[in-house]
Amino acid sequence: MRAALISLSDALHAATRLVALVMLAVLVGAVSLQVIARYGFSAPPVWTEEAARYAMIWVGLMGAAMSFKARFDPALFTPKTGRRGRIALRAVQTLFVLIFTAPILYYSVIGTNGTFARSFLGRAIRSTSGAMDLPMIWVAAAVPVAFTVILVHLAARWAGDARDLKSELLT
Amino acid sequence: MLFFLILALSILGLLAGGAIAYVVGAASVLSFVAGGSSDFLAILPQRVFSQLDVFAFLAMPLFVLTGDLMNRGGVTRALIDLAMALVGRFKGGLGHVNIMASVFFAGVSGSAVADAAAMSNTLVPAMRERGYTETYAAAVTAASSIIGPIIPPSVILIFYGALMGASVPALFAAGVMPGLLLAAVLMAMNAWFARRDDHPGGAGIAVPRLGPALWHALPALSLPLIILGGVLFGFATPAESAAVAVLAAMGIGIARGELDWAGIVKAGERTAVMLGAVFVILCAIAAFSYLAALYQLPRRLGEEVAELGLGPVGYLIAINVVFLLAGMVMDVKAAVALLAPILVPVALEMGADPVHLGIVICFNITLGLLSPPFGGVLIIISTVTSVNYWSLVRAVAPFLTAQIALLLILTLFSEITLWLPRSLGLL
Amino acid sequence: ETIRIAMNDAEDIVTNGEFAFVEGFRPVAEAGGFTVEVFPSNALGNEEERLSQTTQGLIHINLGAATAPASMSPLLRMTILPFLFASTEEFDAVMARTELLGNLNSPLLENGVRIAGFNVRGLDAGFFNTKTPVATVEDLQGLRMRALNKGQVAFFGALGVSSTIVDWSEVSNALQTGVVDGYVNPPNSALRTGHTEFLRHYTPAALAPSFRAVMVSEDWYAGLSDEARATIDAALAAGFKANRDWLPGWAAQVDARFAEAGVTVTELAPGERDRLVEMSTPIHAQLLGEEGLERVMGALNQIRGQ
Ligand code: NA
Ligand code: NA
């Protein structure tokens, strides 16, 4: 069970990393194309600006999940304690993560009137973007996906996931 | 009472090593509940989404990526060697380079955050390599990053101009002198610290020879040319220049034989993590700003100050205090949008100049990026480097003090600000 | 009961026609026992965020760009098409006397929001540029224009003018450095942002009236008593009247403001507007779809036939 949870967290981390890298490439490509098209083509592609923004949303949200997994989110203090203290600290930290994350996830699928229809995703399903006519659900979904992955990473920490990905990232 | 409880709980959370983003986010959520506005928590998913759905924000990840690719591709080293050849004989030379780089960068970017992201990923490692403490390198980077929004172009000056109906070109011209003055003050301080703490550089140091250094840096020099030239000569917008710079940094790194596929992937991964870390903090602060706006807090604060019955000088100083306080806890743009329309008209009635006031307010509000508890630039730099947040706060303090003194001078002597736009006939 | 009204601009009665709406709305609502709380300057968020809060009943009345709800009701793109409506009066008549407003609203109602009507933002849009006085279609040819969206790309394309999409946040910079040479906007936009420092030439071409939508939370509105709903209806009507009454006062100032800013105002040469209309009409179907355009034209012909 514990091992399975940690493997799930690792697999999700690998997946978010892949999505973030692909979307970062889309971002760089779309913005560069905008410059090239201005001087190369008579009619500029209308989708570059929108594609870059939506790609950034995916990169930023996947990055938020990666940052959580890697314990990269900056903290003001780093207390030093023993094993028991560490569990107490982790409990406090978990509480804060849950309080912030819960309403984001809840209101992604439930609206103020208690229905899915009024929720963030419910509205996204019925919306399309201005330039690409992309169903907005493809972009909006990044919000609940990222915070769900963060909760899985959090659970994996309780299951014993204690690896330090931060120092690896900084090299 | 409830709010004090939330405050106490948040401090506990921070002391327990909780990440700033989640502690502030949770405190905001609890404040919604305590204020009887839990229904408004329904704004959160869209608020999170909209924080990133901003085209102008693209420059930030793109500059971080450029910086990372430059580091891995040896481009940074070539540029630093050239800089050392030019200013290495001065003590604290790289500190001066850092400040000058921000002056040039200011001409490209209107954003202190973009400057901080780009510099802390390039100049901080370089300074550390040359024997500066990482903390000092990070502090100089932080202090000089706010030159960006003061020297034109500047997102925040455009925003103020639109909001208050002040001429944007006049504001841009007015920002030049204060920006250069700020750079001069920072360089003087850097020189003083260099002497006191015996920073690298000066007599006896091995300075690379200019000729070979220039030769090696030649391809690398195309990068600042792309970034600066692209924008100044109307080839591309800042975000676009940043994207082209990414491709150029990649190309040069590969051509130098120092950048491979693994390095590119690693740079991309780091950029995503960096963007993500900064972004969650922005979301948490945005949740808090929403609540403040919902309760009309900035408006109430502004109205109280406007009704204090202060004289012109006293009122200007009071405005500065309000904006300094707002800058500490609020997003720069939100603070200007909510406070300027309330505070500025009263000052104008007292005979203040809208352009002068614009520069003072923008200078002031960017100082919030350097002050605790939530200095945006400090958070980014301590994320990108590994300098502890509070060590950075302490190291930036002397610079911040000098900047506040300069702010006071700019407030009292409007001629410093207004001279250039007047000579150019913009006022 | 409190009514929360949100908008993106400042509470400035001189330049902001939406605030004129608020000032017309307020006394009627207050006389009916409501308290009106105004959130200017995007205090509650950008266009998307305010729309989202309106669908959830957190904002009761949102004054915003019609392009945001167009994501749910694409027919709303008609409000930004050039040369579709002849005048604000014609547009108002279509909204008041045909099914079109109902057509616009039906996909919005599912999302808990209803457009009660439209405010005017200022005068009709025209051509601004940094380089040359424009009197003919040919005068536009050497310029690279900033396009806001694919509608404007199509418009400039139809005129044979090159364009490039630049985000609003970068427009000032782009005009100054020459990334773009001009844009299409009502006078209000250029004057309020100080862009007139670079945009030295203006051509009033009456491209399209500049409308902003008044969005009402349907969940909130439906939950009101009959009496309260009548009050809100009367207040909305008073708001729209105040907005239309504001327009002539603003229009009278525009010329003086252009003169003060040193902007040359060039009228189109005789016959040029007809050429512009003819060249750009094909994009209507392209952007609204055949079916959408049919609906709009049906409504228009109904009014024009009367
Ligand atoms: Na700048
Ligand atoms: Na710097």
UniProtKB/TrEMBL annotation, chain A:
Keywords: Cell inner membrane, Cell membrane, Membrane, Transmembrane, Transmembrane helix, Transport. It is a multi-pass membrane protein. It comes from the Bacteria. GO terms for cellular component: plasma membrane. The keyword Lipid metabolism does not apply. It is found in: Cell inner membrane. Pfam families: DctQ. The keyword Cell inner membrane applies. The chain crosses the membrane at residues 18-39, 51-68, 88-109, 136-156. One of its GO terms (molecular function) is transmembrane transporter activity. Residues 27-163 form the Tripartite ATP-independent periplasmic transporters DctQ component domain. InterPro entries: DctQ (IPR055348), TRAP_DctQ (IPR007387). Belongs to the TRAP transporter small permease family. The complex comprises the extracytoplasmic solute receptor protein and the two transmembrane proteins. Part of the tripartite ATP-independent periplasmic (TRAP) transport system. This is TRAP transporter small permease protein. It comes from Ruegeria marina.
UniProtKB/TrEMBL annotation, chain B:
Coiled coil: none annotated. Keywords: Cell inner membrane, Cell membrane, Membrane, Transmembrane, Transmembrane helix, Transport. One of its GO terms (cellular component) is plasma membrane. Residues 11-415 form the TRAP C4-dicarboxylate transport system permease DctM subunit domain. GO terms for molecular function: transmembrane transporter activity. Pfam families: DctM. The chain crosses the membrane at residues 49-66, 103-124, 136-163, 169-193, 214-236, 271-295, 315-348, 355-384, 396-420. It comes from the Bacteria. The keyword Plastid does not apply. It is a multi-pass membrane protein. Part of the tripartite ATP-independent periplasmic (TRAP) transport system. The complex comprises the extracytoplasmic solute receptor protein and the two transmembrane proteins. Belongs to the TRAP transporter large permease family. This is TRAP transporter large permease protein. It comes from Ruegeria marina.
